[in-house]
Amino acid sequence: MGVHIVEESKRCLMCKRAMCQLKGCPVQTPIPQVIELFRERKIDEAGEVLFANNPMSAVCSAVCNHMGQCEGACIQGKKGTPIHFSSIEHYISTTYLERHEFAPAPSCGKRVAVIGSGPAGITVAIKLAQAGCAVTVFEQRAEIGGVLEYGIPDFRLPRTLVQRYRKVMCDLGVRVRPSTTIGGALRIDDLLRDGYDAVFVGTGTWRAQTGHSGRDPR
Question: What is the pTM for the complete model shown?
Answer without folding.
Answer: 0.90
